Amino acid sequence: MAHIDIEEARKQFERIDGDGDGFITAAEFKSALAQGGDWNVTESVAEAIIKSRDLNGDKVLSFDEFWSFLNK
Ligand SMILES: [Ca+2]
Ligand SMILES: [Ca+2]
Predict the structure, then answer these.
(1) Fewest CB within a 10 Å sphere: which of 7, 16, 41, 50?
(2) Which domains are seen in the chain, by residue range?
(3) What's the CA-to-centroid distance between 1 and ligand 1, angstroms?
(4) Which of 2-6, 32-36, 53-57 has the lowest mean pLDDT?
(5) How far is the CA of 21 from the centre of ligand 2 (A)?
(6) How far is ligand 1, taken at its centre, from the CA of residue 12, in Å?
């Protein structure tokens, strides 16, 4: 994965976090991917992706979890 700096990551995170509550839900993730042209991602796929990155098990992605996902 290409290197990304924390400022760029924060911009991406804010773009995905549609309601601006500081957490990315599966629905927000799905619509962000759809906007990026990836219409094949269903809600259950988005949920699975979130789940695989979700470190504390609350079913949403915080910025820290998003950041560690980008840096894997
Ligand atoms: Ca949100
Ligand atoms: Ca979480």
Answers:
(1) 7
(2) 6-70 (1.10.238.10)
(3) 24
(4) 2-6
(5) 13
(6) 13
